[in-house]
Amino acid sequence: NLIDQRNKLRDKFSNGYFKELNHNKLIGADDRFLQKATELVLDNISNESFTVDMLSKSVGMSNSELYRKLQALVGLSPSFFIRNLRLKQALILLENDYDNISKIAYEVGFSDHSYFTKCFREFYGVSPSHFKGNSGS
After folding, report:
1. Is the CB of residue 46 less than 8 Å from the CB of residue 106?
2. Distance of CA 83 to CAs 22, 90, 95, 134, Å?
3. CA-CA distance, 117 to 127, in Å (whole number)?
4. What is the DSSP string of 44-83?
5. What is the mean pLDDT of residues 109-132?
6. CA distances from 60 to 36, 41, 56, 70 (A)
């Protein structure tokens, strides 16, 4: 019984305890990575030519590493990560009654108004003009 108890304690501390410690460190590193990636996208939000290549170089990863990392952390490819941040920024501008919708689309890096409207509708379930019309009331 003593040997069994010792083995159970050894297993508990060698497996569970250290895995939890490493996991906590990874969460911190992942948070820093996501914060840095988000800041890079937001800093380049109006640059319609800001690409996945530019983001991967800025965070110091290859495109495939960036893809795997973002897929694991947020479940999105890098291009969808960038697009979703652009759409979230567009929502903030719409909520604050910022200018017209075409200008908002350009401000957040969409060069095509109809593509912006399509993406916005897919992401939020309403068109930007419908959202803007209902947000003021």
Report:
1. yes
2. 32, 10, 18, 23
3. 6
4. TTT-TT--HHHHHHHHT--HHHHHHHHHHHHS--HHHHHH
5. 89
6. 11, 14, 6, 14
Q: 48-73 pLDDT, tens per residue?
A: 999 999 999 999 999 999 999 988 88
Measured on CA atoms in the order 117, 120, 125, 131, is the torsion positive or negative? negative
Using DSSP's 3-state secondary structure scheme, residue 99 falls into coil
Using the structure block, give the residue that is written with the tokens 């959202």: 131
For 50, left (φ over 0), alpha (ψ -120 to 50), or beta?
Answer: beta
Tens of pLDDT, residues 67-89 = 999 888 888 899 999 999 999 99
Contact assessment for residue 79 and residue 66, using Cβ atoms and an 8 Å cutoff? no
